[in-house]
Amino acid sequence: MICNDTEFADCRGRLRAIHDTLDLLGGKWKVTLMAALGYGPRRFTDLQRGIRGIGPKMLTRELQELEINGLVQRTGQDGKVVYAITPYGETLEPLIHEMALWGRGHRQRIMQGN
Amino acid sequence: MICNDTEFADCRGRLRAIHDTLDLLGGKWKVTLMAALGYGPRRFTDLQRGIRGIGPKMLTRELQELEINGLVQRTGQDGKVVYAITPYGETLEPLIHEMALWGRGHRQRIMQGN
């Protein structure tokens, strides 16, 4: 068994919670999009140009899914459509922070040849 | 531009760090595997049975990649091969913790109909 008896409830609950988060944020782009929008509202073209490898169709789909889940909203700014992080989307900041922190540490580790 | 002038370095650095983390932990299974191994060494069959939807070939590949990146190690326990988290793998705990925390909150939000 993956979750042994002594910690069964905690282990099962944790794996399910992680599964829920990955359901919403899985894939290559969503966390990067949320991190980018953490710096302020962005236009579709800015997001597409700024995130290497993402095509317009994929970007459209990812933004739609983030909107459906209440993490991103489409608004107008100076007569243009922009995408902005919602208050609920901002609750991801601690997770995004830990991801960035770990990634920086990992890059240093690699550069030090560990 | 996705990272405007005022925060350019910080924004670019953060997006790259997240990209690095996703490179290692991306996909449906790796974070769940690391979370499960956080509860102690597990045999291949326990991991496969315990993580819904993962087949033996995929599990083999994911474990190999986690091993290559120093996050998991194969060891022997009572004459059987088990997979265990490495000290470096344990540095993921804060990230895994935030993922679980957010997932729990999200599930509650959904159940409360928000």
TrEMBL record, chains A, B:
Provide this UniProt record's keywords sorted from A to Z.
DNA-binding, Transcription, Transcription regulation
Transmembrane ranges, per UniProt, are none
Record's keyword annotation contains Metal-binding: no
Per its UniProt record, what InterPro entries does this chain match? Answer: HTH_HxlR, WH-like_DNA-bd_sf, WH_DNA-bd_sf
What GO molecular function annotations does the UniProt record carry, in alphabetical order? DNA binding
Is Heme set as a keyword in this record? no
Matches recorded under Gene3D superfamilies: Winged helix-like DNA-binding domain superfamily/Winged helix DNA-binding domain
Q: Where is the HTH hxlR-type domain?
A: 11-111
The protein's name: Transcriptional regulator
Q: Which organism is it from?
A: Chitinophaga parva
